[in-house]
Structure prediction request, 219 residues.
Amino acid sequence: MPRLRTLAALALLALPAAARAQAAAPPQRWLLRPARVFDAVTAQPHEGWGVLVEGDRIASVGPAASLSAAGARVVELPGLTLIPGLIEGHSHLLLHPYNETEWDQQVLNEALALRVARATAAARATLLAGFTTERDLGTEGAGYADVGLRDAIEQGIIPGPRLIVVTRAIVASGAYGPRWAPEWRLPQGAVEVSGVPEAIRVTRDQIGHGADWVKVYAD
Prediction:
């Protein structure tokens, strides 16, 4: 098999932004014509296949000659392989590598605006890496900023993958950080609860603030 360069299906997510900006207009149609398509159903990519996109949905996939290009913008992708978008199951867009800045320092010393700006860049980089869906498992001291990121992506304001967010993780009291001298009361990376009533209250609060999932640390 010739050496392949991979065009991840990030284009399939990036295209809807224009369609959303013209909500009253008919859905835009795009015919993507790469050298081959990997559909994750068979082991080998399909030579000469194309992908027809209408609005923000894939309408059909198959041999390019069998796909109707009527009214569609044809995008030629010679030498490229189109693959389904990848899914990231555990990420933290509002954190960056600990070899750059330790977790405690990020939670305590980095301003929320800085963390959101960094997360915006990370969301774009994630999409360009081929991930079209991402489950973000906690803002780690950044409140409900992940909800805002998710909504900004959905509204076409910033580029990024579809986000599934949990807002602030739920932990047992005294079980999470940052930890400093006991006389100091510091912001925590997650929400502390003690007992079932508090856990129920915080869970409802998370959902009310826009959480898609609720994350609970078991220990």
About this structure: The chain has six helices and eleven strands. The two ends are 49 Å apart (CA to CA). The CA atoms of residues 94 and 117 lie 9 Å apart.
